Amino acid sequence: MTDPLFSGPEPGLAGDAGHADPPPRMGFFTDTSVCIGCKACEVACKEWNALPEDGLCLTGMSYDNTGALGASTWRHVAFIEQSAPPAPAPEGRRELPLVQDSAPPSGGDFRWLMSSDVCKHCTHAACLDVCPTGSLFRTEFGTVVVQEDICNGCGYCVPACPYGVIEQRPSDGRAFKCTLCYDRLGAGQEPACAKACPTESIQFGPLDELRERAALRVSQLHAAGVGEARLYGHDPADGVGGDGAFFLLLDEPEVYGLPPDPVVTTRDLPAMWKHAGAAALSLVGGLALAFALPAARGARAGR
To answer: Cα torsion at 268, 270, 272, 275 (round to 10°)?
Structure first.
């Protein structure tokens, strides 16, 4: 049995963090089916948060110039080129047409999968749990923010994140990540990335409403024949208690560079401490016995 503070659903997230009468938990729903890869979210994020540029180093394998999320990249648009799924069978046929039944495809046998990735603002955020200075904290909106002036650069949060999101900036060693535009939220505004997205691929709002909207969108795509559409990070019963930023994907999570079954890395801390305590007691008992036996033998020999 694990400690509920480290795993499982936690509906009163901001309240449990000490915020009295908090507003609804806010988050992101990113619908990758309508992402066009324009990178407006990346630009808006950098402009609003005054983030340094990434060097514009194209990989040679993609139009992706940022590569991954990092200390200076809080939104990352992935470009994934892959073979398109086979076309559905024509109406009234039970099997796909044979090769000789149709002309060869003309450039339509590949597709782009584009997705704007971001910090997941987990329900159970291991980065927050392991921070020794209190630099990471839970806001009244249920998001996770780094206070850069308190961060001491220890780096404990980096391996703790199950998504590999948070990173230390090489210039000073401090950790940085998406704040979900905490300063804008406090002023009643939506995050810069969602404001700039021209297709509404990035949607912002109360998390419960976003989950309902996402489930409806998946149903619409399934009805339209897009059977591979699925949600990722929306389930409060998953290994991180559900994400504050979740996604609609058109393929397996691994295709997008996402872990298939993320688990908060601090989930087993209570059990580990119990085992460590039992081991310590056993060690103390063994040492006491080791000293007691010779003393008892000496006492008997002196009689």
So the answer is: -140
Angstrom distance (rounded) from CA 256 to CA 262:
14
Verdict on whether the full-model pTM lies above 0.90: no
Report whether 138 contacts 17 (CB < 8 A). Answer: yes
Q: Which amino acid is at 80?
A: I
Pairing status of strand 26-31 against strand 245-249: parallel
Name the amino acid, one letter, at 193: C
Q: Are strands 230-232 and 245-249 parallel, antiparallel or unpaired?
A: antiparallel
Phi, psi of 113 (to 5 degrees): -105, 120
Residue 183 has pLDDT above 50, yes or no: yes
Write the DSSP symbol of residue 242. -
**Both tokens assigned to 236:** 């409060």
> How far, in Å, CA of 63 to CA of 206, rounded?
33
Best CA proximity match to 185, nearest among 300, 12, 27, 14 = 27
Q: pLDDT tens digits, residue range 211-261?
A: 999 999 999 999 999 999 999 999 999 999 999 999 999 999 999 999 999
User: H/E element holding 232?
Assistant: strand 230-232
CA distances from 131 to 9, 17, 159, 245 (A): 22, 15, 12, 21
Q: And the tokens for 256?
A: 């997008």
Q: Token pair for residue 226?
A: 């897009």
DSSP-assigned states of every residue in 79-121? EEEEEPPPPPPPTT-SSPPPGGGSPPPSS-SEEEEEEEEE---
H helices within the chain, ranges in order?
A: 13-16, 40-49, 126-130, 157-160, 182-186, 192-196, 207-223, 269-301
Distance between CA 127 and CA 166 in Å, rounded?
8
